[in-house]
């Protein structure tokens, strides 16, 4: 079967094996320009070399690639395995992936994690200039209130997930974030260069000293943050905005 005019494919929850996907792609998709695929549990899809071969040989025209992988709960707890968070990131760390301006992301929720690869888009304008040049972007995303409770068990889970990865961007979409929790998270991520928050963290400014906060963070965490994007900012948030300016 040939589909000579097929340019884009979306698989929202793809349940077929990687072998079956390969057979499908090899038959019809040499002209494919965009592939968007979501997979759950099947660790065969975390083989970066296999993806690289498939794209080079059978999707040479591919311009946009979006891949989402959700491991099982058991796999998600095995942080030292080849399909753990650091294993996933390293599988897609070759020049082939970096040259294609791919944005690698780990989203850690209270229950499970999601690994993603996305083509770089213009709306990522909060990413630092150096990252835009070398495309070595590894984003950690902390999800919204519906799926993530920011408490000590979550921080413990987060530590195990990020300990072997040099994340360069942090995106927090959680309205219950406190300044103490943010500082705890930044302490685990000394290579962060850009920060995006859906809302300004909850904190009493009068109880904080910027000098004390800087003294409790790794030097690299202070020196590397060059871009901050804050959501839901109002005129009443002037002091909070100044706090983030001073922190960087």
Automatic annotation (TrEMBL):
Superkingdom of source: Eukaryota
SUPFAM superfamilies the record matches: RNI-like
UniProt-recorded name of the protein: Uncharacterized protein
Organism classification: Eukaryota, Metazoa, Spiralia, Gnathifera, Rotifera
């Amino acid at each position: 079967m040939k589909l000579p005019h097929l340019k884009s494919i979306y698989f929202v929850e793809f349940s077929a094996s990687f072998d079956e996907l390969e057979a499908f792609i090899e038959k019809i998709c040499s002209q494919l320009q965009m592939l968007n695929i979501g997979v759950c549990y099947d660790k065969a899809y975390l083989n970066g070399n296999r993806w690289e071969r498939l794209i080079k040989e059978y999707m040479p025209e591919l311009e946009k690639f979006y891949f989402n992988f959700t491991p099982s709960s058991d796999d998600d707890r095995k942080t030292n395995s080849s399909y753990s968070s650091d294993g996933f990131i390293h599988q897609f760390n070759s020049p082939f992936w970096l040259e294609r301006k791919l944005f690698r992301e780990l989203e850690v929720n209270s229950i499970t994690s999601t690994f993603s690869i996305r083509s770089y888009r213009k709306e990522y304008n909060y990413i630092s200039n150096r990252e835009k040049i070398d495309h070595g972007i590894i984003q950690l995303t902390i999800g919204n209130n519906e799926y993530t409770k920011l408490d000590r068990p979550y921080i413990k889970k987060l530590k195990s997930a990020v300990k072997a990865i040099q994340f360069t961007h942090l995106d927090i979409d959680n309205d219950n974030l406190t300044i103490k929790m943010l500082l705890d998270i930044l302490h685990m991520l000394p290579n962060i260069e850009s920060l995006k928050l859906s809302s300004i963290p909850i904190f009493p400014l009068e109880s904080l000293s910027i000098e004390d906060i800087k003294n409790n963070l790794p030097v690299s965490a202070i020196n590397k943050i060059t871009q901050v994007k804050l959501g839901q900012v109002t005129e009443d948030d002037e002091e909070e905005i100044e706090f983030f300016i001073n922190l960087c």
